[in-house]
């Protein structure tokens, strides 16, 4: 079998998604998610100009060799554009392999290790009471784990809090819109949010929270400590992921479990975090950390250190990523949890899929390959438009991490 073509499909049924379709001379094709939020065309150009010419004529079953080729051929290696392209091709080749063998990809990865992958969804509200109500809705929808975010008094908008009731990310503006951030007010508010949530549901539901890269290490340590009575499943991105040694200070001060890594593209970027047990969950995801091949390497490295996966799965990555994450997640030993940012119903129509959610768990299903497809006719109806993620400044105007 040979690769004869690789097509790029850009569509925007609720968010911008870039999909690769790897086509073979046997008529089989495989899909991969190549979405890099806010920089989609950078990945598309990289694929078109540099990656796809290297793939035509290659054997699609040579998944490892192709992963190595795409990883090493750039010379200037890694980074989100390069690695998202490598990840997309990797997902597509696993999809083809599964279809060729008539098996769901998880069977090629070692079979099932669990009956389902524990999932968490998102609940938010501008006011604490609204966030707690939204949490009840997610529990009623079957989730046993919920990420909880609320507004910060004095700030017009806050990460993770959508202004309308639909729990979809607020579509980033045409040009970056600027939020402002007040760490002191946030550190006052977060413990109140979880005190209210625990009053409402007790300790039976896993509660998660995303600090989204905004704190210094001592601020993160203080937050972790203040949240200990509420027994979070995890506190995510307390400090910037690339400040690996900052986690040593956070770890010294708090037993609140820590999660980081959605921005990680390669094992070298989280090796210290894992080998020094500075975190409890690694958030690396198939679309940005080297595909299934890359994620498995990170998970295998993490296993002896007792670090589990908690793959990023926001709705601004496509159902192809969620499908690939679930095939990896159902079989990998040290899986913690999978983020389940619900896609819009239109997105689910564009990307019909075999994965299911029931009773708090996700399952990849039994369809051959990744079990996800793309309706190209429908996809064509949702034209791509550049959409940035927001930026944020501290109250004194200093540019900060959104
Ligand atoms: C967030 C994401 O889901 C999460 O944990 O960090 O929503 C993140 O902000 C977006 O995926 C960025 O595109
Ligand atoms: Mg996050």
Automatic annotation (TrEMBL):
Q: Which NCBIfam families match?
A: ManoateDhtManD, PRK15072.1
Q: Which Gene3D superfamilies match?
A: Enolase-like C-terminal domain, Enolase-like, N-terminal domain
The protein depicted here goes by the name D-mannonate dehydratase
* Listed SMART domains: MR_MLE
Task: Tell me the ranges covered by the Mandelate racemase/muconate lactonizing enzyme C-terminal domain, including all copies.
Answer: 128-257
Q: Name one GO molecular function term.
A: mannonate dehydratase activity
Query: What GO biological process, any one, is recorded here?
Result: amino acid catabolic process
Species annotation: Ruania alba
Per its UniProt record, what InterPro entries does this chain match? D-mannonate_dehydratase-like (IPR034589), DgoD-like (IPR034593), Enolase-like_C_sf (IPR036849), Enolase-like_N (IPR029017), Enolase_C-like (IPR029065), Mandel_Rmase/mucon_lact_enz_CS (IPR018110), Mandelate_racemase_C (IPR013342), Mandelate_racemase_N_dom (IPR013341)
One Pfam annotation reads: MR_MLE_C
From which residue to which does any coiled coil extend? none
In terms of superkingdom, the source organism counts as Bacteria
């Amino acid at each position: 079998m040979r690769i004869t073509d690789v097509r790029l499909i850009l569509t925007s049924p609720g968010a911008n998604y870039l999909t690769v379709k790897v086509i073979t001379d046997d008529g089989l094709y495989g899909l991969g998610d190549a979405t890099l939020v806010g920089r989609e065309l950078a990945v598309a150009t990289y694929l078109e100009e540099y990656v796809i010419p290297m793939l035509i004529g290659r054997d699609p079953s040579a998944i490892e060799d192709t992963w190595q080729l795409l990883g090493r051929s750039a010379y200037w290696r890694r980074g989100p554009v390069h690695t998202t392209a490598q990840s997309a091709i990797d997902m597509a080749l696993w999809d083809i392999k599964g279809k060729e063998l008539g098996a769901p990809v998880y069977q090629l990865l070692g079979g099932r290790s669990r009956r389902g992958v524990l999932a968490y969804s998102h609940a938010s509200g501008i006011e604490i009471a609204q966030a707690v109500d939204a949490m009840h809705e997610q529990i009623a929808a079957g989730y046993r784990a919920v990420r909880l975010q609320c507004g910060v008094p004095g700030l017009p908008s806050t990460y993770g809090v959508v202004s309308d009731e639909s729990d979809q990310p607020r579509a980033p503006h045409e040009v970056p819109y600027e939020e402002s951030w007040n760490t002191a007010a946030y550190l006052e508010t977060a413990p109140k949010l979880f005190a209210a949530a625990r009053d409402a549901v007790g300790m039976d539901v896993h509660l998660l929270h995303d600090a989204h890269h905004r704190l210094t290490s001592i601020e993160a340590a203080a937050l972790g400590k203040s949240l200990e009575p509420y027994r979070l499943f995890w506190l995510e991105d307390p400090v910037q992921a690339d400040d690996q040694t900052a986690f040593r200070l956070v770890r010294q001060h708090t037993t609140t479990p820590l999660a980081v890594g959605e921005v990680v593209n390669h094992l070298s970027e989280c090796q210290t975090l894992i080998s020094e047990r500075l975190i409890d969950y690694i958030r690396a995801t198939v679309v940005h950390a080297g595909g299934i091949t890359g994620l498995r390497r990170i998970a295998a490295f993490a296993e002896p250190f007792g670090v589990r996966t908690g793959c990023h799965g926001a709705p601004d990555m496509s159902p192809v990523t969620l499908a690939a994450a679930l095939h990896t997640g159902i079989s990998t030993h040290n899986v913690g949890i999978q983020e389940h940012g619900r896609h819009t119903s239109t997105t689910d129509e564009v990307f019909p899929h075999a994965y299911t959610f029931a009773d708090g768990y996700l399952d990849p299903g039994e369809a051959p390959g990744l079990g996800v497809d793309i309706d190209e006719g429908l996809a064509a109806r949702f034209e791509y438009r550049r959409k940035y993620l927001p930026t944020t400044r501290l109250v004194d105007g200093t540019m900060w991490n959104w």
